[in-house]
Amino acid sequence: MTSENNPSPSMNGKVVLITGGNTGIGKETAIALAKLGASVTITSRNPDKGEAALADIRRQADSDKVECMRLDLASLASVRSFASEYLATHPRLDVLVNNAGLTLSHRSETEDGFESTMGINHLGHFALTGLVLERLKHSAPARIVVLSSDAHRGALRGLDFDDLQARRGYSGMGVYCKSKLANILFTLELAERLQGSGVTVNAVHPGMVATEFAGTDDVSGFFGLLVKASHLFSISPAKGARTSVHVASSPEVEGVTGKYFVRSKAVRPSRLAQDKQAALRLWEVSEQLTGVRL
Question: What is the pLDDT of residues 131-142, one digit of tens each?
Answer without folding.
Answer: 999 999 999 999
